[in-house]
Amino acid sequence: MYDPSGGFATGGGWLVPGSATSDTGDALPGLDSSSKANFGFVVKYQNGSSTVPAGNLQFDYNVGSFHLKSAAMQWLVVTNQNMAQFQGNATVNGSSATYPFSVQARDGDPTGQPDRFVIKIYPAGSDPNTTTPLYKASGDVQGGSIVIHKN
Asked: Which of 19, 44, 25 has its CA nearest to residue 105?
């Protein structure tokens, strides 16, 4: 869905995957349910220039030596419920292979709920619409902020 006037999303901070605020099924190398994962992102459609959003995402789980860096964004959807979802491809630990990823980000401030970040990483070269995630991290943001910007 392409809607350059729909808004954009930014965020940065940390969460604890596998903790009490996480969804079931979190899976990362070395997951211990008590260590921080850091993230930062900005994703936005460029006015009149493309139907593909620009931006970047970084996700780091140092305990598991897991480092993801986006290579390209594919799509972005911003909802009226202070949610953004976006998908793209990324490298993991500097590998030349690209791994599809999807992110759900919630700006909890207007609703009274905490900000929330969920990332799913799929096997290199796979279709995220038909494949089970290889890795997943989720949870309420413990430090930092997610902001859904409305145009």
From this structure: 44
